[in-house]
Amino acid sequence: MGYSIFEKTMADMTWQEVEKASKENQIVLFPLGVIEEHGPHLPLGTDSYWSYASCKCILEELNNKGQQALIVPPYYWGINHCTGGFPGTFSVRPETMKAVLMDIFNNLHDWGFHNIFCNNCHGDVIHIRAILDAIKTGRNEFGLNIRILVDFYDLSRIGLKGDEDFILVLNPEYPEEFYAGMDKSEIGLFDIHAGGYETAFIKHYFSELVNEEVAKNLKSTSLTNKELEQWGRGGEATRTLVPLGYAGNPAGYKNIVNLDCIEKFTVEYTVKRIMESLNGKA
Q1: How far is the C-alpha of 2 from the C-alpha of 196, rounded, in Å?
Q2: pLDDT digits (tens, 9 = 90+) for 156-168
Q3: Whole-number Å distance between alpha carbons of 119 and 121
Q4: Which numeric CATH code is attached to 10-278?
Q5: pLDDT tens digit string along 241-278?
Q6: 50-82: b (≥16 Cβ within 10 Å) or e
């Protein structure tokens, strides 16, 4: 997979190709992320790279199913409350983020697109709420079918029930064998930021961006429930808790030996849910 986050997005298309896609009623995939610290071993753009790479995989699977789609250039000027105390972590105001997203939705509406699926790979609650606010307003003002992909386990954390018409809930049942080789001591702990899985994902798709020498020597800092409360306070509270800027087990990325299987399963499930929603079944 290429390094450029514009590869295979609308940024590499001509305006005539975009016009043709809208007339064909192609669906739109919108990768959403941020620029924030990800420990001493991963780049600031990790969440944006993750969201973009996922959308590329979803696009390819949609095409395999006969459904044409295109990808909006990745959005990365998001909100970073928790990690905002680290240099390199950019953050915009919620109203700024909502305004930009609304302008993007308006553009897509004016060009004739209707079905938009947002893929966000950043867990900051304030960031997610700004996206949800923009989506709900965009649906009402422009009559667009905008949905955001939401993991089932995140519903309560962001105050959703799961039946909202502006979300598409993802709850795949992964085979147990996918987790073979994982460090048993890490199972059930909160590997939430720049940990094993995130490191493995970036290593898989953007190998040159991972500092493996640093990652393999980092001690696990998976958080407890109490520590998660401190993490959520942001600023110095977060830096005191995780001074190197990661919360998880980066060294454990080598134990995730079935990443290909996990990602393939996730993409196929996501495409299935997208197709169901287009057919009024989700």
Answers
A1: 22
A2: 999 999 999 999 9
A3: 7
A4: 3.40.50.10310
A5: 999 999 999 999 988 888 999 999 999 999 999 999 99
A6: bbbbbbbbbbebbeeeeeebbbbebbbebbbbb
Interatomic CA distance for residues 268 and 282, integer angstroms? 16
Q: Tell me which residue has tokens 């094993």.
A: 196
Tell me the sheet residues that pair with 219.
none
- For residue 223, is it left (φ>0), alpha (ψ between -120 and 50) or beta? beta
How big is the chain by its Cα radius of gyration, in Å? Answer: 19
DSSP assignment of 122-182, as one string? ---HHHHHHHHHHHHHHHHHH--EEEEEEEGGGTGGGT--S--TTEEEE-----GGGGTT-
Residues 216/37, Cβ–Cβ less than 8 Å: no
In the chain, what's the furthest Cα-to-Cα distance? 54
Q: How far apart are CA 206 and CA 56, in angstroms?
A: 13
Q: CB-based burial of residue 176 (10 Å sphere; 0-12 exposed, 13-18 middle, 19+ buried)?
A: exposed
What torsion, rounded to 10 degrees, do the Cα atoms 139, 22, 55, 223 define? -10
CA distances from 138 to 35, 42, 48, 193, 266 (A): 24, 34, 22, 30, 27
Residue ranges covered by each domain of the chain:
10-278
Number of C-beta neighbours around residue 242 at 10 A:
22
Within 13 Å of residue 194, how many CA atoms lie on the same side as its CB? 30
Q: Helical H runs in the chain?
A: 15-23, 46-64, 94-111, 125-142, 196-205, 212-215, 225-233, 235-241, 259-278
